[in-house]
Amino acid sequence: MSEKKLAGKVALVTGSARNIGRAIAHHLADDGADIVVNGVSDKDAVDTVVKEIQDKGRNAIGCMFDVTDADAVKAAAKRAKDELGGIDILVVNASARGQVPFLEMTFEQFHDVVDISIDGTFHLAQACIPTMQEKGWGRIVTIGGVSWHVGTPTRVHNLVAKSGISGFTRGLAVEFAKDGITANSVSPGFIDTVRPASAGALPNRPVKAPVERMGTVDEVASMVHYLCLPESAYVNGQIMHVNGGMYLGGS
Question: Domain map of the chain by residue range?
Fold first, then answer.
């Protein structure tokens, strides 16, 4: 059997108790990575994914924390270092979804969504990058979304959050390339997931994809997996679209 390409690496995947995050955790574990599984409220779901990863023969720990809580993020990074050897791969997947017409949106609703993406990425990157610098190797992958590229009504807060994620990722890509760390973003289209009640109904697609179906979580996870591999070292600061051709632009 060939050696797994991510053997010896440790990945923190936020929001990995279900849907895209869970698929990412499994794809990375299948290629040899140990996993820090994260959730914010459903400990049973986190524990289930931890056991699934352990059943593959990989190490896994569950960390319950809100990505907007700087102290909790630092504590999770320290635990990962103490128990697993430190984070090599950071996948920023946790986000909030919702639909509110803009003129009915409260400032609190706006920030509830934006803060998870922007503040969360800030705290996670600051907690994880120093260990990557020590190792001279790291991969950061953020999860964006097609909505801000094509525009979607009633989701201004989400579009702002995801556009900010893209700029954040490119800033990290430029600043830390010299340390052997790459940063890229994956932008999913309409993906077949279990939507929480807070996300509302699936919004109407303003642009139809040439591939006339919804995407799968495994298709998104496969792109994230590639960006975490050693051979992806020359891919940096990119937005990788997984949307069936819904958006054909270059940024």
Answer: 10-242
- The DSSP output letter for 202 is P
At 64, is the secondary structure helix, strand, or coil?
strand
Identity of the residue numbered 12: L
Handedness of CA 44, 49, 53, 56 (dihedral sign): positive
pTM confidence score:
0.92
Return the pLDDT at 1: 47
Give every CB contact of residue 55 below 8 A, 6+ residues apart in sequence: none
Tell me the pairing of strands 138-143 and 181-188: parallel
The closest of 46, 229, 44, 45 to 36, measured between CA atoms, is 46
In the CATH hierarchy, which fold is given to the domain comprising 10-242?
Answer: Rossmann fold (3.40.50)
For 163-197, give the DSSP string: HHHHHHHHHHHHHHGGGTEEEEEEEE-SB-----G
Beta strand pairing status for 89-92 and 10-13? parallel
Tokens 């919702």 sit on residue = 98
pLDDT digits (tens, 9 = 90+) for 110-160: 999 999 999 999 999 999 999 999 999 999 999 998 888 888 888 899 999
